[in-house]
Design a protein that fits this description.
It is a single chain. The chain is an all-alpha fold and about 425 residues long. About 70% of the residues lie in helices and about 0% in strands. The chain has 19 helices and two strands. A two-stranded antiparallel ribbon has the order 1-2. Helix 2 packs antiparallel against helix 3 and helix 5 packs antiparallel against helix 11.
Amino acid sequence: MQSASMGSMRAMFSHPRSDCIAGVVVFLVAVPLCLGIALASGVAPVSGLVAGVVGGLVVPFLSRSPLSVTGPAAGLTAVVLFETRALGTFERFLTATMIAGCLQILLGLLRTGRFAALVPQAVIKGMLAAIGIIIVWKQLPALVGGDGDVSRMVSQFAIGPALVAAASLVVLYGWSATPLARHAFLPPALMVVAASVGLAAAFTGSPSLALTPAQMVDAPLGGWSALREALPVPDTGAFADPMVWRVAVTVALVASIETLLSLQAIDGIDPLKRASPPNRELVAQGAANLASGWLGGLPVTAVIVRSGANLQAGGRERLSALVHGVLLLLAVLFAGRVLNMIPLACLAAVLVQVGLKLASPKLVLEEWRSGWTRFLPFAATIVAVLATDLLKGVVAGIALELILRMSTRSPGESSEQA
């Protein structure tokens, strides 16, 4: 056991140069995503950054996935947003996140990772599409400088944030057509942040265009002490609340499914064709969620966007994820003034792009062309998630999938199985 552990540590540090470079790139990708996902989740930006730090500092030492990167995920924004509202406070949700981490560790120890393949792909795609719709809908007010209430978008419209958002979307969707897109160390999200910071600075001299402090990121200033004061603390008294445990089960299941899907995706494009052990990954993710909830951060999963950036930047081993976590920690502690120069409209634009990727018209068309037995569970999952919540929506989609499979079996198949 000790020999295997030592071998894993040696492998982690076997490509220091390429992994350090990749870690810097992943850090640059992660900063706007951590901030934006916190914004979409309705919590303070620092909770998104802390989740990224925990994902980078905890998971690499427990996971055996060489390329996977962990952090706050778009797939959990709807869970955080709605379940925090249901529980009443984010502090109670943090308690649920800690419990969810313990449940994930248990799932890993019970070797349940292989069962993720049993969830129908149509239901998973429907779940992610519903999350994409929720993300886009919730970010519409921030695109025009609003406070998050869609019904007040028109009355709160501000031309400065709207111009920042428009410029950000142009950069995001036009980046692939520029020569700079060939350079992995210039991710489009970073370029969007840089451009929006420049625009916001240029607008300061104009009363009609200038952004207000409420339309900018609000990260704590002052190092460790300011960070401790800014971070919410879990409500330990909520451990006995059945509703908190229900939310914990939702977080554990959704985070585990998203992690295992990301793991499959990144292993599939790994040029070295390495296979990551899913049960070990569940244990690592559970430990990270336990720590993130305790420290006041968002729940985390393995995320394909940052993992893909890691691979494209030349990452070879888990050291790149560790480097990205260290850099995020340094940014939280010492770069608060820089982070506070980022307009929220820019982060909203990044999230709108993420949401539209999850709920793209192309995806809907593909599911439609796949036939009714795939499209109906896909559509039903979307409708059920939007009408109720994530867990109920997924259960509804799986139930419809099973009903359709049973109804389409021929009498010969049924009698043969009997």
